[in-house]
Amino acid sequence: MAKVLFYTSIKTRVKDQESLMKxxxxxxxxxxxxxxxxxxxxxxxxxxxxxxxxxxxxxxxRFSIIRIFTYxxxxxxxxxxxxxxxxxxxxxxxxxxxxxxxxxxRARIIIVRHHLDLAERAGFQQDWSYRLTYFLAKEIICVxxxxxxxxxxxxxxxxxxxxxxxxxxxYAVFSAVNKMKxxxxxxxxxxxxxxxxxxxxxxxxxxxxxxRICNELLxxxxxxxxxxxxDGNREGIEQLIREFxxxxxxxxxxxxxxxxxxxxxxxxxxxxxxxxxxxxxVKEAALVELPVIVCSGVGDFxxxxxxxxxxxxxxxxxxxxxxxxxxxxxxxxxxDREQMGKKLKETVLPLFDIRxxxxxxxxxxxxx
Length: 368
Fold this sequence. Notes:
With 368 residues, the protein is an alpha/beta fold. It has helices at residues 15-27, 42-49, 64-81, 92-101, 118-122, 128-136, 145-153, 179-188, 207-219, 234-243, 259-265, 280-287, 301-304, 319-331, 334-351, 354-357; strands spanning 3-8, 30-35, 52-55, 86-90, 108-113, 139-142, 162-164, 193-198, 224-229, 250-254, 268-271, 292-295, 312-314. Strands 3-2-1-4-5-6-7 form a 7-stranded parallel β-sheet, with helices on both faces. Strands 10-9-8-11-12-13 form a 6-stranded parallel β-sheet, with helices on both faces. Helix 3 (64-81) packs across helix 4. The chain is globular and about 65 Å long.
């Protein structure tokens, strides 16, 4: 069995990595987790799973070269001390450090890419550290076929370096739905169509489209309420809510751990995002059989979502109008909407079940 290290830079929960590390432990591997940042959630989760968890000493120098060198030395020492066989590095800040250490450790260094086109959209695709990461990387896991295609065609990364492996989830890591909270939300917004959008409040997730949809539905005579969950440009979003005079129709709730409670209470998930690789909130919606409205041609949605079967796939350039029309259509046929949610669950859960994904990782581990 192998000694496996998860190396990352994350402050929030990461349910795909939690699921994967637990499955590795079940297989008999000895699993370590090294984080560049303090994390409120992961130490206890790792302890319960039998994973050895550590946080790297923070590097506070204002000189980037010193920070890079120090992080690289810390990773090198950790890998050597614990005789790590395989390193799975997640997210760009960690990935850059990981590829720098590839030449001085015996461990197999594999970087995991969770984004598709975010580097281009956010303007860091030409940064020397980003380009060097993918030049030096020997093995790269991406989480969607669309991401692999983009990496090859747009970034010129060699195909033989890239492995497409779906995100895998042990659905038990998702907090159980609090039925009392769901009932409270439904009673608080009785006789309303409940919409929800979950994700960062930024230009790529486009939460303002959900606000416009809410406004248009109200103008069409539909009694509607929108839950907005996520951090980011909250000030700008709240200003837009005030401009539309939607203070009573939109709840801007920030980051919350009990996402499933709100999803269970809602009637539709609105997801106008144009930058995804493989979106976790759609998996969460599937868990509670909540029908979703997403943009076609984004991430891996087209691979497993079928329009008017298990989801609604909308043109990203006409998202507001098409979403409003679709919601009005299904408002007259709530049974069809509910059936869509059931079909979503039937499709999504097996496809991203960690038990069905885990065998893809066996190729990276020593046979002994």
